[in-house]
Prior knowledge:
Layout: E1 6-13, E2 16-23, E3 26-30, E4 32-34, H1 47-52, E5 58-61, H2 62-67, H3 71-76, H4 80-83, E6 90-93, H5 96-102, E7 106-109, E8 112-116, E9 123-126, H6 128-138, E10 142-144, H7 156-176, E11 184-189, H8 195-208, E12 212-215, H9 224-234, E13 244-246, H10 252-259, E14 265-267, H11 270-276, E15 279-282, E16 285-288, H12 308-311, H13 315-323, H14 328-353, H15 357-369
Amino acid sequence: MSSAFNFRLDAADGTARAATMSTAHGEIETPVFMPVGTAGTVKAMTADSVRATGAGIVLGNTYHLMLRPGAERIDRLGGLHRFMDWPGPILTDSGGFQVMSLAKLRKLDADGVTFQSHIDGSSHRLTPARSIAIQQLLDATITMALDECTRFPATPDEARQSMELSMRWAALSRDSFVARPGYGLFGIVQGSIFPELRAASADALRCIGFDGYAIGGLAVGEGQAMMFSILDITVPHLPADRPRYLMGVGTPDDIIGAVSRGIDMFDCVMPTRAGRTARAFTSQGVFNLRNARFADDGGPLDPACACPACVKHSRAYLHHLFKAEEMLGPMLLTWHNVRYYQDLTRGLRRAIREGRLAAHAGQVRAGWNAPEDLP
């Protein structure tokens, strides 16, 4: 695989790891949370504000960008990095999840999927080769193999058939990927909640060989305990010298639990979506800024945070913005939430390097459960 795409383990605390990933677009320190910029933008944020949170890598999506404005157009305009003002690393999802969840009509076969756009009903064909080609046109630093998103719940037979199709597509994705210094290709473990299928999928991906390994099909309704159980089963089957990426996860508590189980990379729409709906993740727990109790609260949203929402404004002002339906409210709260997730993973990295992850995780969780100092 790509010779200059490098994953260096810096420290370990139990099964948790702190590492540095070298790429064509810069280094990534892990554990890392990747803000989701589905359509070439992290919603309600400028690229400068995303950078100000400390984020080092963002996520884009093949499905959305192939439909609008089109991968070929983005390529002509200099690639996604230039298009969205993000010279740093970008990971692009393969589009498989969105085809299954958003497309109006879809027909699946052994070689790919034909679907109708949710935007205008136009017909499109996505195969492993096409997905990889689109991601290359976008100039993705990390390309994801095309997979089928297994529905949940699924029977063992359904999950097996879906997993085996994803492994076929993984091999075809690998065959289509053009290795370039500093660029990586990740395979995706599937298998629903069935331990033997997860193990078989991970082993199949190792045989194919990838620069990194993602775990997909979780946080889809199975619950945190089951998710952690699947991670406990799956992670030992993944190479220790490659990054591990848990897709679409999740809450701060999910991230802490997954990091302690050896996961390095995360993405989720939760912090940005919550910010647009007046919910703030803080060191004291989750607040709903629409709540009337904040109307006269002159204190900072989170005294432990240095984002503009916390340093320059009060809880009362943020409450007012949402009550008045001013767009600045979602912008400030999204900035805060993305900063909170970056602070969370920074703290986990530091704790792993210092060999005190368990104590640090306990302190973070205790803050969420502490009595609120609110009027």
